[in-house]
């Protein structure tokens, strides 16, 4: 399910499926997308930041058109203890690999991978990023 911002409208709460993971997309060419993500973060329950949130940064292949500071994006990942993935949607191989990675993360967050919790996965992601 997709939304352009949070909070979600409450009138359909009873029909909404369980939310297992939230992926915040940031277009590196748009300061508005970063501002929208920052505004939406206030509406996410703190428990989701324990392995169930990630930031997906798109447009990274066009550094010339970058409107968003990479430091600001890195800081979001650090402050919210959430992984940051970078993707160029126009390149099919990278798009497919990113989709597969997100799907695997979702399987973990939804509890479909025995022995791996969203919390332990988030810790592993941070540890591998530090190396």
UniProtKB/TrEMBL annotation:
InterPro entries under this entry?
Centromere_Cenp-M, P-loop_NTPase
The record's section on Gene3D superfamilies has: P-loop containing nucleotide triphosphate hydrolases
Q: Show the Pfam families listed in the entry.
A: CENP-M (PF11111)
Record flagged with keyword Nucleus: yes
Q: Name one GO cellular component term.
A: chromosome, centromeric region
Mainly localized where? nucleus
Tell me where it resides. Chromosome, Centromere; Nucleus
Is Disulfide bond among the key words of this record? no
* Keywords of this entry: Centromere, Chromosome, Nucleus
Q: Check the UniProt entry and state the signal peptide residues, or none.
A: none
Q: What is this protein called?
A: Centromere protein M
Q: Which gene encodes it?
A: Cenpm
